[in-house]
Design a protein that fits this description.
It contains no helices and 22 strands. It is an all-beta fold. The chain folds into 2 domains: 88 residues, no CATH class; 68 residues, no CATH class. An 11-stranded mixed β-sheet has the order 2-1-5-7-9-11-13-15-17-19-20, with no helix packed on it. Strands 3-4-6-8-10-12-14-16-18-21-22 form an 11-stranded mixed β-sheet, with no helix packed on it. The chain is elongated and about 55 Å long.
């Protein structure tokens, strides 16, 4: 097993973290860590803020804010705010606000507001407001206000509407389809006769 755990350029004292090779779990309350698990997959990392992760595939991250990720594929992120992601494909994200993502295709994002995404195709986004998406084709968006999509496979700019589910057309075909969310029926309403 090959890995490196440093803080401020020096190896982190072993008393400041737990590393279980059997369960493939790393846990530390320290911040400003650099975790280089480049040749390792299927690990779970639980850290504080301002950490940098370099990992293989199938990893899970539970972090504080201002973290940077460079990972393989099939990764799951549950983070706080101000995070940057550079990943491969098939990733799932659950994040706070002010996040930046640079990913491959087939990703699912569930985020808060003020996020910027640069992705491949076949991605699903469920976000709050003030988000910018630079994507390929076949992506689906459910957003709040002030969100914009820029298609990278063909040049097209789409302003997303709040409460409307928008799906981009297939690769090379301009346009999109919109589907309004069904309105909830008022259960307390009784009809008069």
């Amino acid at each position: 097993m090959k890995y490196s755990i440093t803080q401020y350029g020096l190896p982190l004292d072993k008393s400041l973290y737990t590393l279980n090779k059997k369960t493939k779990t790393f846990c530390s309350k320290e911040n400003w860590l650099v975790l280089d698990f480049n040749s390792e997959s299927n690990w779970t990392f639980n850290t504080d803020f301002n950490c940098t992760f370099i990992t293989g595939s199938y990893c899970t991250f539970i972090t504080g804010s201002r973290c940077t990720f460079k990972t393989g594929y099939h990764c799951t992120f549950k983070t706080s705010s101000d995070c940057t992601f550079k990943t491969d494909f098939n990733c799932t994200f659950k994040t706070g606000y002010h996040c930046t993502f640079k990913t491959g295709s087939d990703c699912t994002f569930k985020t808060d507001f003020n996020c910027t995404f640069k992705t491949g195709y076949d991605c699903t986004f469920k976000t709050s407001s003030d988000c910018t998406f630079a994507t390929g084709a076949n992506c689906t968006f459910a957003t709040k206000s002030k969100c914009v999509v820029v298609r990278r496979d063909i040049y097209e700019v789409i302003e997303l509407k709040e409460g409307i589910k928008t799906t981009l057309n297939k690769c090379g075909i301009k346009g999109y389809t919109e589907k309004e969310k069904p309105k909830r029926k008022n259960r307390n309403h009784r009809s008069r006769r």
